[in-house]
Amino acid sequence: xxxxxxxxxxxxxxxxxxxxxxxxxxxxxxxxxxxxxxxxxxxxxxxxxxxxxxxxxxxxxxxxxxxxxxxxxxxxxxxxxxxxxxxxxxxxxxxxxxxxxxxxxxxxxxxxxxxxxxxxxxxxxxxxxxxxxxxxxxxxxxxxxxxxxxxxxxxxxxxxxxxxxxxxxxxxxxxxxxxxxxxxxxxxxxxxxxxxxxxxxxx
Length: 203
Fold this sequence. Notes:
The protein has 9 helices and no strands. It is mainly α.
């Protein structure tokens, strides 16, 4: 069915709100950011936001889900089991780096909220924190799947796949942090090459 003009406009407006929330939440934690700030950034009245989202938490959850779906599509080529395992690892590494370096606001949100996920106040996670946690776990599962395929092909022999996944994730995070701090300015293909060289080979 063809999308009507009103539907297109509504979808575009919703995206404008999510983009504004992304920018605001990259600078402030969830509890400090306000809908007023987000509305101002989107050049809308605060009341307009309620026509698209129930509250701030609903908006944040929509943002996280949308961005994870985009990230998942970016790494999709690495899940092709018909490719050589090391090629899958290379494709995944380049896709992850390119996605995050092109979406640094999203990575800032991840950094801002990571502490609340690892050490939640009073032992509880709010719904938006559970969503972030779930997305991170799914990302780790994708990393682990590709790393296990490499092990089956003779790479990373006798290494615990969960440990390798954590090492891989740590290297990726460090490279992105270095990029954000201006400590790294290599082109992405070179960064990918350097990262793959850091990972332990078969033994």
